[in-house]
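Limitations
The structure tokens in this dataset are predictions for the assembled complex, not deposited experimental models. Users should treat interface geometry with appropriate caution, especially where small molecules or nucleic acid strands are included. An illustrative entry is reproduced here so readers can see what is and is not provided.
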Amino acid sequence: MPSEPAAGSCGHVDRRPDMTTLLEQFRRKGFVFAVYMLGNPDDAADAVQDGLRAALQHQNAVRGARDPAAWFFRVLRNKCIDRIRDRSKRKHDELFDATDGRRRSAEDQLASRELGEALRRELGKLEPVHREILLLRDVHGFSYARIADVLSIAPGTVMSRLHRARLTLRDRLKDQL
Amino acid sequence: MSVCDQIEPLLSGYLDGELTQQDRQRVELHIDDCTRCRAEFEQLRTIQSELGSINHPQPTEQQWSMMMSVSAIRTSRGLGWIIGIAGLAILAWLAISKFVSNESVGTWERIGIGAVAIAGVLIGGSVLIERLRARKTDKYKDVEL
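Predicted assembly:
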């Protein structure tokens, strides 16, 4: 399980995180989140760019935030939702078809690779509410409290929604498990 | 409601270490005895482990640099403004010092030219400040006609 990233700020002015470092972290983590949410790497890069622009425009809010990463993911999630609402119909399949071939490596264990590929494919097909919560928890390692913060939901809702998302994914991957 | 029905919704919380001590103990005791719930827990654990370890899609070089260009553009623009303003200040200082030390220009001419220059700076500055204020509060600045 991935470890949870450090919150990054303790509130003291002199110890506020450096903006360049934050932007670099946001860019790396944000792309994986956005690419699964939008199903297309170009759209994902656009959404991350919008998110980074917002972070630059609100530098004081970001650097002074209790949890800068949660701040950024909240913004990025909204950018992704805007795109999902607005864009013309695009298929998720192009992302997963285009990237799977590039990532294949000879050393991978066959079974694990098949499961991994199936996971990527099925993750991209989940309902956005299930996809986003799985990404935040199992890919980015956010705690339930941070997830509640990013998604603006009650902490108690996180566990039940996450469990439903995992069960849905489990049901679709039954043959590989 | 069976014990399995009560425990099953807690499996994800148990997997993530987010349960209270009491609930964690309940789950542990149950999955030690219940084959079905233990199997479900193992499946969830496999999914979580795989999700954390698979290679996720990465951006191309072009997408990578495009994402960061927003800060590069901002930085270079800021730097451009600073260098430009510094250059203008140096030129203005040189022009003023030459003008003041030039003995071929009469006193009244100096006063007249100086007044015109000061008036230009004041009027230009006020227009600039007004424009900047309007830009900040203009709701329609991003509207394309």
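Some entries come with short summary sentences. For this one: Chain B has two domains: 3-53, 77-137.
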